[in-house]
Write a structure and sequence with these properties.
mainly alpha, Leucine-rich Repeat Variant
């Protein structure tokens, strides 16, 4: 890059023979693995030529060009420029009808485009890419399944895309991948289900496809990334009453309590948020308390490495305080002083959640009221 080698390579893409174009494309794709190089390549005007080779080049050129686009479109500006140059429709065509390698590279490129520019989320749907991505999750090879699940996880950030993925029958293969895929596939599928489950109709579909059991198993015995993503998915599913019941039946409450106690920081945060949603229902409140969740949540109130863990724990305790036995359990676990401390010294969000917890814990409970006063 510093030797000025990128502009001549870009000129070869535009003006060279087919053989020279292929050589230049391979060189630029290799260089684009480095982020600074990828930005320099885009600045040199390569994107339209790479997209044209992905559209109309020889098979080998289309495959390398799709991989090149995945590496080049890692900033908002480049992802936007690729869309404006027609890259979305080209990649959608490749993921639908390209060779096996082209489909995998195109799925990776669509992930980059979706991740780095929100305007690409509807554009990818409108180009017809969602159904072929679902097909890859269902019937692709291992590499294609992983890449397509990653793409769907990002695309599902858009509300209409959530619906489109469900209508393309994308939920059952994602659940299957979360249950029986490779380790990376399980993590990607759980991430996709996490986002999809924010839609209540999708939450029902995930439950009916056996997703609760698969996600609980990941929370209980997966890798750190699998645990975090699966806990996030269960937290969203917990807003759907039928899924709450399924979680209790499948041992999801105890698995989330264990993650909130023993997981990575990210896992503890996500588990606490999931427990907060679960604690909306009375039967789940009982299950959380009986699984030892109260002292675990009280411990998270003092977590200083995360702004969200104390807030999520306070929100969970606020919901748990809907019954007298949990009010008593929070006081006996020493939860009132750290809540008062959060109310006094925490961030605005932490103060709000702590105030809600203290209000609920004091409601109708004279012993808690006295203890809160004593705590300052």
């Amino acid at each position: 890059r510093e030797a000025g080698g990128i502009p001549p390579l870009v000129r070869l893409l535009e003006q060279g023979s087919t053989a020279l174009q292929s050589d230049a494309l391979e060189a630029l794709t290799f260089l684009a693995e480095n982020y600074d190089n990828s930005e320099a390549i885009c600045a040199a005007g390569a994107l339209p030529f790479v997209i044209e080779l992905a559209r109309s080049g020889a098979n080998a050129q289309r495959s390398v060009a799709a991989l090149g686009l995945a590496r080049l479109c890692r900033s908002e500006a480049s992802a936007q420029a690729a869309r404006e140059a027609g890259g979305v429709s080209v990649l959608a065509r490749l993921v639908r009808s390209g060779t096996a390698e082209q489909r995998g590279h195109a799925a990776l490129a669509l992930t980059s485009l979706a991740e780095n520019d929100d305007d690409n989320l509807p554009a990818i749907r409108e180009a017809g890419a969602i159904a072929p991505l679902v097909t890859l999750v269902r019937t692709g090879d291992n590499d294609q399944k992983e890449k397509a699940a990653s793409a769907l996880a990002i695309l599902a950030r858009n509300a209409e895309n959530k619906v489109c993925i469900r209508e393309a029958d994308g939920i059952p293969p994602l659940v299957s991948l979360a249950r029986r895929g490779t380790e990376p596939q399980k993590a990607r599928a759980a991430a996709a289900l996490w986002t999809l489950a924010r839609d209540e109709t999708n939450a029902v579909a995930i439950r009916e496809a056996g997703g609760v059991k698969a996600l609980v198993e990941l929370v209980g015995g997966g890798t750190d990334a699998q645990k975090e993503h699966a806990a996030g998915a269960l937290g969203n599913l917990a807003m759907e009453p039928g899924s709450q019941e399924a979680m209790r039946r499948e041992g999801g409450v105890s698995a989330l309590v264990a993650l909130a106690r023993d997981g990575t920081l990210e896992g503890r945060e996500t588990a606490a948020a999931a427990l907060a949603n679960l604690a909306i229902e009375r039967q789940s409140r009982v299950a959380i308390r009986e699984s030892g969740g109260v002292p675990v949540l009280v411990g998270l109130l003092a977590e200083r490495d995360s702004p969200s863990a104390p807030s999520d724990a306070a929100a969970a305790l606020a919901n748990l305080a809907g019954d007298t036995a949990s009010q008593v359990a929070v006081r006996k676990a020493g939860g009132l002083p750290p809540l008062v401390a959060l109310l006094r010294d925490g961030s605005d969000t932490q103060k709000e959640d702590a105030a809600g917890a203290l209000w609920n814990l004091a409601s109708g409970n004279a012993d808690n009221q006295a203890a809160i006063i004593d705590a300052g």
